[in-house]
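In practice, a research group might receive sequence data for several interacting partners and want a quick structural hypothesis before committing to experiments. The following worked case mirrors that situation: the sequences arrive first, and a predicted assembly follows.
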Amino acid sequence: MNMGFVSLVGAGPGDPDLLTRKAVRALRAADLVLYDALVDRTVMRIAPRAHWFYVGKRAHRPSVRQETINALMIRAARRGKCVVRLKCGDPFVLGRGGEEALALAAAGIRFEVVPGVTTAIAAPALANIPVTHRGLASGFVLVSGHDEAAYGPVLGSIAPGSATVVVLMGLRARVDIANLLMGRGWNAATPAAVLFAASTTRQETWIGTLGALASASVPSAADRPGTIVVGDVVSVGAQLAGMTAEVQDEASIKRA
Amino acid sequence: MNMGFVSLVGAGPGDPDLLTRKAVRALRAADLVLYDALVDRTVMRIAPRAHWFYVGKRAHRPSVRQETINALMIRAARRGKCVVRLKCGDPFVLGRGGEEALALAAAGIRFEVVPGVTTAIAAPALANIPVTHRGLASGFVLVSGHDEAAYGPVLGSIAPGSATVVVLMGLRARVDIANLLMGRGWNAATPAAVLFAASTTRQETWIGTLGALASASVPSAADRPGTIVVGDVVSVGAQLAGMTAEVQDEASIKRA
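A structural hypothesis for the assembly, expressed as tokens:
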């Protein structure tokens, strides 16, 4: 019996150099790659002989259903193929990797999880913002900004300033999120940042305050993804940007 | 003027295959590597011509002071050297990477941050536990278990069950952490896991409950690092371990 194998692989935040060696190895061995939006197209060069199949969401077009993705993986593996399910960031951070793993296990398909560099940490890091920093934050909270039922209980309860807040997929809800935090008691002057398209050529950093995050001063998202960071750690990024402006080749910084 | 360069590089959770391509490139170009405990020694083969200098903490021995590490980086860079500061996991997650970046910037040294795969996400992932999972958790909280002043305000405020809790460096404080959460209203039956030495050959997974985490049923840590995870997502890992026991080559699982 020639059973295939599925690797659930994190592609990192965008820059192909932030793929892990294990991810590269899985891609080189792949017969089929099922990939998401935001995966850099130059990654395709790593596995030129594989069949690349796009299963991500695209604006104004229906996205491929999760059941369909699962069925594609299972069918290929049963035909003896090596499949890579290539997901942005880390497969287990807001990526439905767990659901895919359960579907594969239920079908008796062998699989592995290859963790990746998560955008939640790397997007701020690439703007020199550490999600933790001694004296400022010894922890962070990551939530999806996709719907209020998900982020509301977390952000509505956590003690103001006790941890850095990172929101993925939160650009549309940024006003609600900022107001929720301020309503919980967070100071409107708390530093905040939005990292657009981190680690790609379209990278842009907005630095302001929690109060400004709720205003119109944040650039329009257009079709770029954005990571929101709220907390005093943002001041480290702002400080570093100022200190290193002369010696570093930095991404553009816009201030509110 | 022949100015050097410093890369603050995340080494990932332990497995050298979880280094990013960018980390490998930085290591290959390095003249000097300042590395922490827990960095796998086989990583040294990537940069055999570099001088490797250990600056991590070791039990029963005084650790190298942060000021000394900063001074070593700055001195080498001023002599035109390429320096890699190789840190476990991600350099900006509880790793003092921000402090090192500030010291470098203050000294006028060019530097870059190379994000890595964080142990906080990869340790659970390698035990098939997703830190987020639709219907169970759409976010997670990461804290250091190093001292109560740091994790207390976060874990003492967050609404029970509203997010997965991940604690790094929390093995010694696990009883206090479990009691703090239960005092806040978390159910003692909430699934919990401890991931020991994730992604290394000494990897071991303990799966139990929040109540059991506060008991003596957790294996002794010995000298292994451990990652604590509390939340319903742990049940996904337990479920997958059961489903895949026959087809997967899994790390040993001990149940409380």
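Before designing any experiment, note the following. Residues 248-256 of chain A have pLDDT under 50 and may be disordered. The helical segments of chain A are 21-28, 66-78, 97-106, 119-125, 148-155, 174-184, 210-213, 234-244.
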